[in-house]
Automatic annotation (TrEMBL):
Keywords: DNA recombination. It comes from Candidatus Enterococcus clewellii. GO terms for molecular function: DNA binding. One of its GO terms (biological process) is DNA integration. This is Tyr recombinase domain-containing protein.
Length: 96
């Protein structure tokens, strides 16, 4: 199998999208980035995402998706606070 350039791949994708009636300006790189983002949004392990995307290290993945990982950390902090608050509330009810 002969490798093709990213430009040729994107032209083929554009033609396929047009034939399918999809009026979007997509690239394979954009689809790859979306794939990585969705994996992280659905709490997939960073090590797995890094290997799946072919990154040499998890640090590479974390750097590329740093804004997303920051948002996920904030989401995790919020969930942790909510869980702890619910546990505290339940403990107070049980003691009454």
């Amino acid at each position: 199998m002969t490798p093709i350039s990213s430009n040729a791949a994107n032209k083929a994708l554009k033609k396929a999208l047009k034939r399918a009636g999809i009026d979007r300006d997509l690239t394979f790189h954009g689809l790859r980035h979306t794939h990585g983002s969705l994996l992280l949004l659905y709490d997939t392990n960073l090590f797995y995402v890094s290997k799946r995307l072919g990154h040499a290290t998890m640090e590479t993945t974390a750097n590329i998706y740093s804004q997303l990982t920051k948002e996920l950390n904030e989401k995790g902090n919020h969930v942790s606070e909510e869980v702890m608050g619910n546990m505290y509330h339940a403990q107070n009810i049980a003691q009454k």
